[in-house]
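Customer escalation, tier 2.

The customer says the design service returned an amino acid string that "doesn't look like it belongs to this structure." They asked us to rerun it and document both sides in this ticket. The original structure tokens are below, unchanged.
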């Protein structure tokens, strides 16, 4: 069985859990507590030299970086597909995912926020404002692309969950944690509701994890 190293509240861990659930794959659950900086200890550094979560151990090999792992899952377990068949559609779905994975999430990542707190004295209100700025910019663009896609039926693309949803839903969870008013993005909220009805997303939710507290 694959071994998944992750933290319940980590957005990157959340997205990988969704992808694994959508593929119907079970893993051994290995919590890595970021709050106690367990990821910075030698034991975990031996697993992932970058000291980030998630990491997925498969047959003795450790895969790191959630985008690479999700692509690996798509290649090794192609059904159900999380990317469309058409090359242009795949590029569109990957772009939606990248808007979150490359432009929003990294600058709201825990280590960035910890640096803002420790080096610049950012208080909780400043942190929430920082996160809201970048999430809002990304969500404004994401919402516009959803509105322009006339073929879409409920999800970010098409009529089934895709890689785009795998990335979007954890970012919505993060937005709620940073007290962002999500009402200005009704299409994104509709996607959130559509995904929330599916067991794969329910089981992947942060508060559904054994280490949630």
């Amino acid at each position: 069985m694959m071994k998944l190293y992750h933290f319940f509240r980590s957005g990157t861990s959340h997205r990988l859990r969704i992808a694994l659930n959508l593929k119907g794959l079970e893993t051994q659950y290995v919590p890595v507590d970021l709050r106690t900086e367990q990821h910075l200890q030698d034991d975990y550094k031996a697993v992932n030299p970058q000291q980030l979560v998630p990491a997925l151990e498969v047959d003795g090999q450790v895969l790191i970086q959630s985008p690479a792992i999700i692509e690996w899952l798509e290649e090794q377990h192609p059904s159900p597909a999380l990317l469309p068949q058409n090359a242009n559609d795949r590029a569109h779905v990957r772009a939606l995912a990248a808007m979150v994975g490359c432009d929003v999430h990294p600058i709201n990542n825990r280590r960035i926020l910890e640096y803002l707190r420790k080096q610049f004295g950012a208080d909780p209100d400043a942190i929430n404002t920082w996160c809201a700025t970048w999430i809002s910019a990304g969500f404004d663009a994401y919402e516009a692309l959803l509105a322009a896609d006339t073929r879409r039926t409920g999800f970010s693309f098409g009529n089934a969950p895709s890689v785009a949803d795998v990335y979007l839903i954890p970012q919505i969870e993060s937005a709620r944690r940073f007290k962002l008013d999500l009402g200005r993005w009704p299409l994104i909220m509709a996607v959130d509701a559509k995904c929330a009805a599916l067991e794969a997303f329910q089981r992947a939710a942060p508060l559904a994890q054994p280490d949630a507290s």
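Tier 2 assessment: The sequence is consistent with the input. The domain at 87-201 is CATH 1.20.1050.10 (Glutathione S-transferase Yfyf (Class Pi); Chain A, domain 2). The chain has a mean pLDDT of 96. Sent an explanation to the customer and offered a walkthrough call.
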